[in-house]
Amino acid sequence: MAVANPARPRWADVATVTLVVGETNRAFHVHEADLSEASPFFRAAFTSGFRESMERTMTLPEDNESIFELFVDWLNHQCYNMPSPPKDAEKDYDSFLEPVQLYVLADRYHVRRLKDLILSNIFHHMKQAKCGPSLRTIAYAYEHTTQFAAVRRLFADYLAFTMDHVQSSQANIQAWLRRRPDVSVDIVSSFTKHTLKRNDPFAQDMPGDYAD
Fold this sequence. Notes:
Blueprint: E1 16-21, E2 26-31, H1 32-38, H2 40-45, H3 51-55, E3 57-60, H4 65-77, H5 97-108, H6 112-129, H7 135-143, H8 150-161, H9 170-179, H10 181-197
Parallel strand pairs: 1-3
Antiparallel strand pairs: 1-2
């Protein structure tokens, strides 16, 4: 007797939720299962019994629509690559700013796999191109993450071991560090840690220290 194959779920049968993002209230429709698997924050929001779980909609007015679109794209395809500088890029263009902004969003919603992927992208780009983020991007990372965020450890190591690659004068760097005691403390910690181990973190494979 022939055995019937189980019916494949149709698009209409796949549960979705709506995320309304930013000042323009841009709506993103995403698969609930994928979102819940990636983010404990959203899983709790849509299974809590509160308004979001009833209406299947959540409003995120403080998020940037363009950065959130990158998150949704990663959710659908499970990949992310750092952007290349556009041909008409301004002098102070920093290709590290976008991935750091995406990392901050992933950190806010506890999307660990995306954070690890972004840090891997940043690390290998820094190692291969022998360049790193601007002071402005590093400041953004520190201002939008907590004390023990892995991106802080990565950038502190970068400043500690490759300060000569930073595109700014020594006077500007020193003045910037005086305004950022949290960065200064992390740089000293980086020196201490790696001097004891006698290793340069950028002369090897990506250290496990940069995983959240």
